[in-house]
Amino acid sequence: MKFTHSGLALAAIMGLLELAACKTVKFNVDLTWEDGKVAGNTRKAIWSNGQIPGPTLRVKQGDDVEFLVNNSMPFETAIHFHGIVQQGTPWSDGVPGISQAPIQPGDAFLYKWKADAYGTYIYHSHMRAQLDDGLYGAIYVEPANSVERPFSLMTDDQTELQALLNAEKKTQPLIVSDWRLFTSEEILQIQEESGFSSYCASSILFNGKGSVICPGQDHIDDLTRSGESQALGGVSMSDMGCMPPTATRYSRYDFDLSKIPTGYYEGCVPAQGPDAVFNVDPAKKYVSYDVLSMAGSSSLVFSIDSHPMTIYAVDGRYVEPSTVQAINIPAGSRYSVMLKLDQPAASYTIRAANKYANQIINGTATLSYTNKGNGVPTTSSGKPGSSTTTSGQYINELGTAATRGVTILDDNTLVPFPREAPASYANKTFVLNIAQTSTSYGWKLGNDSYPMELEEVEFPALFDPSSIPTKNMISTLNDTWVDLIINVTTSGQPQHPIHKHSNKFYVIGQGNSAWTYSSVEEAMKYIPSSFNLETPQMRDTFQTPPSLGAPSWMALRYHVNNPGPFFMHCHIQMHHSGGLAMAIMDGVDAWPEVPVEYELAVMPTNH
Ligand SMILES: *[C@@H]1O[C@H](CO)[C@@H](O)[C@H](O)[C@H]1NC(C)=O
Ligand SMILES: *[C@@H]1O[C@H](CO)[C@@H](O)[C@H](O)[C@H]1NC(C)=O
Ligand SMILES: *[C@@H]1O[C@H](CO)[C@@H](O)[C@H](O)[C@H]1NC(C)=O
Ligand SMILES: *[C@@H]1O[C@H](CO)[C@@H](O)[C@H](O)[C@H]1NC(C)=O
Ligand SMILES: *[C@@H]1O[C@H](CO)[C@@H](O)[C@H](O)[C@H]1NC(C)=O
Ligand SMILES: *[C@@H]1O[C@H](CO)[C@@H](O)[C@H](O)[C@H]1NC(C)=O
Ligand SMILES: [Cu+2]
Residue ranges of the Plastocyanin-like domain (predicted)? Predict the structure, then answer.
């Protein structure tokens, strides 16, 4: 395209006008490694400005972000901005060994990126297994005024619409996660010494608050699912609700039970921590939460008693609103939900229950109506003013529907708003197998396991792509469409929440059978109903389909348009640490030139 001089000047002025509204937001986190109380027990943890979770970063779409990490901890770290595309700024993706060298103790690092897309994101440690030590916090990018909201699909009434828009403007993060009595380094060591993988938590947290609940062996026995008792062959789940390491389950691996400390999978000791309370004002009619999971080993089903949720955005992108009673939130996914505050003024239980077979565990928090008696409509069924209602419970302690008529969101019914379709053909297909290695905690994605030592390479992939062995990466060409077939090669695996860095993928197909095709095009000749190319979901995190009784697969399609070294991995922390990860060298033919300030592994500290 060619501009005349005056056209250019006009374009420049328009650009300036738009720029005037955008600003540079500076955000500093100081990371410390200190003893502190979480869920009633004191242990060492990572505090971001003294908090777990870290402070929320709120910006407006179009803003530039300067995120300064001050590492006051006695070990290395790096922070990733989960879901942020990093368009043109691959050096700020925060993956040690890929986009940067680890931030040394006492050093600082300045991440610079543009909040070009609206929505809910997360910052979290991407170094070793530090996420499990509490280094995470929410990011909210408020949509630009020009972005069309999906709320007119919910109501025609102008007052209602305004209430929905107001609720969205005040949306708040609601982070569910799990917590352990051991630090992540202790866990990595216990795994190696005992041979027994870590998949148990002691607490479920809501915005960092929760308790250790010991429901008792009898109660655990009552709740044990038939699949679990079958796998255990007569043995009980532990008093923490966990699958014990029985000889039958571990016959393939070397293991030494004497190396397992109490509290790792059994030995529940109750501890009282703070309760998370979410106050809502019914006069506002609606409240919005960005519900996201930073769990390490749990897949949490989330619900709020008596309050159906209207899902209006997922992984930071609007969807056509869909109303359900509960959602399953795999680690790394984000769901923006709207609640109608039309119930009698009272307190309602917020629930999160693990649905994986590894452990029976749940946690609760409270939704509390303030401004009682003001603006509360009397519903036909409602008893006004009662203190705590016990009715209206949607899910049970196993994360399944408590009564008939309860709908748990099926993500595959979600349709992006506005709708957007991928290219109908891919230029390149990669089949990436997921399998376990020879240890109970070792995993591979593609042809090999991704060793954690690659976080420490001398020249991160951004500066030298050959630092990463070819068996641990895939390479793509810029401006091509790529299919990633995530091939769960064996039955009985947990559903892996697969997270891809940089831009989103379209979830174009999935199945609960062996993948035996060379491409999506070929598979569509045999199993067309397993695909959706018209209105597929747009995600950056999506879990593999269940593999009960048979292997499973999913097909993810994305457009390579942001050259640089990125990453893809399972977001179950111990699967990631165990090697279920790979590097994605996007656009190797258009590799970016790195700004000189990032060529220095570490930025100079100056505040
Ligand atoms: C940065 O960390 C150093 C120690 O590593 C500490 O002395 C300093 O106060 C920290 N600065 C800020 C702004 O937190
Ligand atoms: C689930 O949470 C409730 C409320 O905190 C608690 O009473 C119950 O024991 C928990 N059940 C399990 C299996 O953790
Ligand atoms: C990718 O595939 C599309 C459609 O099949 C084609 O038009 C395009 O030329 C291909 N690009 C490359 C780089 O091969
Ligand atoms: C895995 O190895 C095979 C055989 O060498 C190769 O054809 C394939 O491309 C590799 N897969 C990936 C994802 O690199
Ligand atoms: C990479 O491809 C995108 C289009 O998908 C294009 O906009 C961009 O300019 C390309 N980058 C380079 C460095 O060629
Ligand atoms: C995908 O997994 C299936 C088992 O489910 C296996 O038969 C097939 O060979 C795998 N595909 C590739 C390309 O490795
Ligand atoms: Cu996994």
Answer: 32-145, 173-371, 469-586
